[in-house]
Design the sequence.
């Protein structure tokens, strides 16, 4: 509930319209790009949206630094960020749910379990459900002429002897520690220890970047040496879509934290008012939690 | 804070005002309603007689698809978001929405999305033709190339809905006048709070579904392809996990509107306010665990069919609580039947019919006969049209005097209601019969024994379409030359903070929060 007092309603603004136009151009550009046409439209739209958001955020930051934001408006921003993260949770939930549905129900049914024996005999005879799925139903039934083929190798736990060369483990260590470092930065800021804040936030950004480099390395490894691509049946699909979307979110999170780092260097934030940083760090913790889910369900539980 | 609207056309493009944005939403919604309605008229004209008369079957498929998409995402949802923008700040005693600039962004994304979607009609391969539920593999392997624009269009609509919902939740949780505890909130605000939660929970699921489609179509993944180890049925699960809460997203704000109109014209407070709140929350919860009742014929284990059948029937309990509460509100009230009340009473009767056919459809063994027939079409038009459209029309008649300071012509309103009411029932009631007799939906032609009822149904559709033009005429003449009204309360039985404001409502609603006892 609001308290007594005057409200603040911002003046009319051209930015929302520009942002909407930018999104519209992106949608048209992406739609034509995936059909093999030029990607120029997409990049134009991305530029419009990036420029608009830059301007938009600087206005919001300036308003806050000019003391125009009431406690009530600050609470609205907190609600906004929390519910945005909830929507992201639901987005990842779809993919986790699909992974579960495919592993627990679809593959056994394709393999003829319960009452699905006939469809297995007629369509995919010889198919054995396994996870990670190395031989697709198409391959099992059609051999050489199969359109959908499984990967040569997968990314699951390689055994204790090769555990130290297993990139996902290192990525887990990196991301989990980055959640700790961003928390240390937060305590630094709350105690007005700017040096501590800058140092540990910088380390967090660096860890995010290392994570992304390692993931790129993992993808190159998969494509070049392991015969594991986006087209490697449902395992390749799930693997790249889930880790890929997570990687995209790590990228956004790193950019968000980098912006907060630069703002910190410019002297923004104080021990009482630090919402921009807090929002980015919540996002970062969320990305971290998703990774734990991925590590467990995509990499380990086979 | 500026004291009045900006001058010129820029007011509408750059506004941060909840009333301006609400107006934009409402007009956009009505434009989409007319466009989707035009598609429906094409469909009904083709089905007027058996055999192919006017259009080709491929175009018929595009019409059914576009009619569904435009009506659900372009007409009904924005209509209620428009009402939310207008009414929530007025009903909770706030000056505006919590995040006014994002509010304008979430509106302006919609014209972009629907321009893209409509443009596909004129592209090579034609518009999406796989039904508004876009089941894989119809929407992946066998889709026209324009499906990619459809996918990104859906992403835009989702972004708009999520931003709009975040704004509504922040407004309701954060901007209420001092003293307005949660259990003193008006029902419309309550229903929208829960609807916004549903939207944030399921629009990302829809985004996930179309993303999987995009990858299957263009990048060789096998989400919906059994050859690679995926499953087309996975699409249906993901879609309906979005789709079932979506139908409550559409109907819950309608419940809210009706819960204001019936007490106002019964001159009694709403019967069972707290049970209304709990019923709304229960419906929202149940909506997440019943989705597969849309898929009884897809080949589900028998245990799944039983579970989804019984879970679905549970929804009848909170919904019936609502219907009984509305009836009890009217019981021994001092009733008058102005246009909004006519619509509200029609809503209660017709929505109840739609609810009962819903229970019939929930019965898994019986659904084998009803599935994908015109019985389903009749069922969801009784809840979508007589539910959502009737109640948003009622809301416009009810609050239009407060918004504009002008009174609509009561006779014209009643004439419009009765033409629409008769047209609606003539259109959709016979569809129950032809559906039970076995006429499948989404076909451009039918067997001869369905001819008579189809002709009657098409005639009703043209009557109903005409009634909407009359509604447009009523609204425009009210705004231009309606009888001015200035007393704060337009309706003597109406209660709530919005009726304490001057008429017409000032540009900025409450500059200081009112106290609520």
Sequence:
């Amino acid at each position: 509930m609001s308290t007594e007092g005057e409200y603040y309603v911002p003046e009319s603004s051209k930015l929302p319209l520009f942002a909407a136009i930018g999104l519209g151009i992106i949608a048209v550009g992406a739609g034509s790009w995936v059909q093999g046409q030029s990607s120029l439209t997409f990049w134009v739209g991305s530029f419009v949206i990036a420029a608009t958001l830059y301007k938009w955020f600087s206005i919001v930051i300036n308003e806050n630094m000019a003391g125009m934001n009431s406690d009530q408006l600050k609470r609205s921003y907190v609600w906004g960020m929390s519910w945005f993260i909830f929507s992201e949770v639901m987005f990842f939930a779809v993919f986790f749910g699909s992974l579960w549905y495919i592993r627990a129900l679809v593959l056994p049914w394709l393999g003829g379990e319960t009452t699905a024996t006939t469809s297995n005999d007629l369509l995919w005879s010889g198919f054995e459900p396994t996870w990670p799925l190395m031989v697709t139903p198409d391959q099992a039934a059609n051999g050489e002429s199969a359109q959908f083929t499984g990967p040569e190798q997968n990314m699951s736990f390689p055994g204790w002897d090769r555990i130290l060369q297993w990139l996902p483990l290192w990525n887990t260590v990196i991301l989990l520690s980055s959640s700790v470092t961003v928390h240390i930065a937060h305590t630094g800021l709350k105690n007005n220890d700017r040096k501590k804040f800058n140092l540990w936030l910088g380390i967090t950004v660096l860890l995010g970047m290392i994570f992304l480099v390692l993931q790129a390395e993992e993808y190159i490894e998969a494509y070049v040496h392991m015969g594991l691509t986006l087209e490697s049946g449902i395992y390749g699909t799930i693997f790249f879509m889930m880790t890929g979307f997570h990687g995209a979110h790590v990228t956004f999170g790193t950019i968000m934290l980098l912006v907060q780092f630069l703002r910190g260097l410019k002297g923004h934030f104080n021990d009482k008012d630090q919402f921009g940083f807090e929002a980015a760090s919540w996002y970062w913790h969320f990305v971290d939690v998703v990774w734990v889910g991925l590590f467990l369900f995509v990499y380990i539980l086979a | 804070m500026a004291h009045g609207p900006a001058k010129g056309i820029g007011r509408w493009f750059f506004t941060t005002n909840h009333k301006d944005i609400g107006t934009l939403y409402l007009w956009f919604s009505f434009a989409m309603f007319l466009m989707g309605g035009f598609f429906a008229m094409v469909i009904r004209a083709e089905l007027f007689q058996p055999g192919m008369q006017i259009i080709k079957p491929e175009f018929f498929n595009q019409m059914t698809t576009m009619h569904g998409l435009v009506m659900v995402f372009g007409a009904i949802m924005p209509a209620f978001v428009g009402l939310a923008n207008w009414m929530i700040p007025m009903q909770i005693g706030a000056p505006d929405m919590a995040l006014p600039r994002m509010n304008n962004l979430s509106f302006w994304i919609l014209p972009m999305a629907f321009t893209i979607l409509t443009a596909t009609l004129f592209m090579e391969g034609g518009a999406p033709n796989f039904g508004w539920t876009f089941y894989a593999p119809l929407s992946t392997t066998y889709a026209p190339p324009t499906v990619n624009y459809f996918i990104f269009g859906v992403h835009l609509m989702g972004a708009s809905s999520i931003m709009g919902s975040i704004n509504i939740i922040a407004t309701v949780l954060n901007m209420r006048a001092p003293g307005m505890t949660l259990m003193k909130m008006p029902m419309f605000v309550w229903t929208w709070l829960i609807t916004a939660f549903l939207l944030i929970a399921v629009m990302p699921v829809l985004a996930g579904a179309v993303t999987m489609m995009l990858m299957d179509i263009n990048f060789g993944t096998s989400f919906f392809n059994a050859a690679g180890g995926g499953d087309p049925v996975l699409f249906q699960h993901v879609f309906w996990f979005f789709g079932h809460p979506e139908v409550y997203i559409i109907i819950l704000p309608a419940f809210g509107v009706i819960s204001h109109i019936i007490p106002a014209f019964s001159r009694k407070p709403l019967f069972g306010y707290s049970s209304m709140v709990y019923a709304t929350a229960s419906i929202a919860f149940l909506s997440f665990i019943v989705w597969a009742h849309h898929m009884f014929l897809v080949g589900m284990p028998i245990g799944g069919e039983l579970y989804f059948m019984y879970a679905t029937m549970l929804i009848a309990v909170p919904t019936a609580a609502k219907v009984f509460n509305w009836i009890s509100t009217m019981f021994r009230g001092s009733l008058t039947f102005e246009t909004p009340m006519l619509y509200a009473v029609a809503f209660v009767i017709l929505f109840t019919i739609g609810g009962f056919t819903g229970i019939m459809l929930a019965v898994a063994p019986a659904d084998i006969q009803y599935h994908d027939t015109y019985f389903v079409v009749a069922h969801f038009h009784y809840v979508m049209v007589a539910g959502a459209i009737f109640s948003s029309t009622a809301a416009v008649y009810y609050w239009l005097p407060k918004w504009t300071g002008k009174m609509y012509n009561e006779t014209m309103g009643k004439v419009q209601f009765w033409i629409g009411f008769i047209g609606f029932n003539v259109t959709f009631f016979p569809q129950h019969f032809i559906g039970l007799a076995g006429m499948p939906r989404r076909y451009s032609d039918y067997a001869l024994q369905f001819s008579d009822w189809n002709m009657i149904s098409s005639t009703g559709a043209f009557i109903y379409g005409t009634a909407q033009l009359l509604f447009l005429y009523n609204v425009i003449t009210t705004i231009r030359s309606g009888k001015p009204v200035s007393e704060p309360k337009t309706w003597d039985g109406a209660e709530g903070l919005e009726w304490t404001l001057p008429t017409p409502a000032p540009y900025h609603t409450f500059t200081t929060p009112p106290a609520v006892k």
User: Anything to note?
Assistant: Chain A touches chain B through 77 residues (CB under 8 Å).
